[in-house]
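Q: What would this complex look like in 3D?
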Amino acid sequence: MSLTKQIISGDRRALAQALTLIENDDHSSQHILTDVYRHTGCAHLIGITGIPGVGKSTLINSLAKLMRKSGDKLGLLAIDPSSQFSQGAILGDRIRMKDLLGDEGIFIRSMASRGVLGGLSSTTAAAVDLLDAAGFDRVIVETVGVGQSEVDIASNAQTSIVVLCPGLGDSIQAAKSGILEIADIIVINKSDYPEVNLTKSYLREMIDIGSAAQTSGSETQNIIDDINEKLDTDSSIWEVPIITTVATTGEGIGDLFEQLLAHYEHIKSTGEIIRRRHSRLRAIFESQLRKQLYTKLSQMLSEDYCLRQLEVIMERETDPYTAATNCIKHFETNYIGDED
Amino acid sequence: MSLTKQIISGDRRALAQALTLIENDDHSSQHILTDVYRHTGCAHLIGITGIPGVGKSTLINSLAKLMRKSGDKLGLLAIDPSSQFSQGAILGDRIRMKDLLGDEGIFIRSMASRGVLGGLSSTTAAAVDLLDAAGFDRVIVETVGVGQSEVDIASNAQTSIVVLCPGLGDSIQAAKSGILEIADIIVINKSDYPEVNLTKSYLREMIDIGSAAQTSGSETQNIIDDINEKLDTDSSIWEVPIITTVATTGEGIGDLFEQLLAHYEHIKSTGEIIRRRHSRLRAIFESQLRKQLYTKLSQMLSEDYCLRQLEVIMERETDPYTAATNCIKHFETNYIGDED
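A: Here is my prediction, written as structure tokens for the whole assembly.
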């Protein structure tokens, strides 16, 4: 039986093996992804992101237990930028998720990005498709950090949850990093800490300002409007809920799960889910275009050729921009010769 | 006088104008970058990054005042992922840096990344080159967050400073995000808070483990060794100092400045600076290759063609991976026809 068939039939070992191939950017991974693609599109894709130390792992542990009680099969990807320091920290996370071990209805995997091309965002998208094809009802992607890569990854989810702590500093930083813009649900965890009401009202204000800006005819909004028109969807507004939780005691996790289900219903009933699928697939398609094109170029240009270019750049006889243009001309001249 | 000549002669208005062109990925920006390139290579490139809320702006304010006292001209780039929410936060930062306003020897600029291709990392590299060519002795790049993009940006600096706060949670998260790996100097700010010694000894341990791992023949180390061999440099070790500061009172900022100078001397005397320049230029060169190649592809493939591909993908008649391969074949077939 092929690896793809094994994955679709629910073989966990085959799934783990395929994830490793994707993580290592193995040459066989495109073949697997092509094969599983038509089995995707059933799972609810959930992104959970937030600034460090807010208790994401504990929160996910509680949320996952609730999801399992309702009978959902659950795939969980923890996205981990490659780091030689991180082994201990990941072990710590897995300890915080110990309640989930040994449950056949749940699959947990930490993903590092070893392949440079396309990066974390592209590796994550591929891994999500595998879990989707393997029949998990909900796929949660957990990201560490609040940088641009996290925004990129989270914007590929159908429902994005941003987790914060009480304290204005962190909320301001989250706003600054652009992470609030992609939130469908905001969680203030550790809400037994002081300042929770202040944080909540600050966030409410930020989100309202954000929504106002979003509907004021920005370029992005115009594109969204265009797509909505084409897809004939109802663009009725989802008001981002702010949920307070104490993940360690389980307080508020029920609310979170409810809102998660409500958001999924909302995007399905308004057709918003089609727009999100469309934009997710477009991102995958474009990232594949870039990757495959660059691979072709790399095959054409030898390492020696690149090193020679760099030498000339280092000597300041040329600059990296002109050198790149010349490289591409060289590529053009020799392109067809290598094709059939 | 051309814009480039104005920039090199120290015209601040011309510099600001060129930075805007780069930020907007204007078609003229490659021309400017090509022109200024041979005037670069003099500035000390410093990256300052760290998890949110650690007081980076206040720290940079204090550090910049000290640098100005020693007579250095200073360019400062605050890298800001595009966000409609962030205006207020940036204003807050500028208030924390109010001591620096009105000083002709300092140039402050917030950069957002509007161009998608190459992203923040590529925009930042270009902006740094402009400030370098404009004659600033030190160029500081401040990044928000601890994600992969921040690691990418920071790894392009000659001296990377990572700022943390007392508290183990944050340090673990920083380790997890891979940001410690790129640190040349670590700062524990707000060191009047408790837990500072615990944090310090934890970080010391993490860094020592990291160095041990680095010298144990990893693939990256092999590449570094190769380059070192080729460049005939001395790879004598820099022991990452951990400096405690209270940015609000200025405590420890003198130590930080001293270590910054010591590190710059170290990389110059060991030849490490050549390796860093080489790897920075290689990153710029490769990112330009990708960008220019993708631009060519985009010019070839019409928006209609792409939308048709996406329709077929949405209908699951094909998958994004195969569609990309077909697109590139289509590109190949039509490529030469458009060239002279």
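A: To summarize the key features: Residues 82-89, 336-340 of chain B have pLDDT under 50 and may be disordered. The two ends of chain B are 34 Å apart (CA to CA).
Q: Very helpful, thank you.
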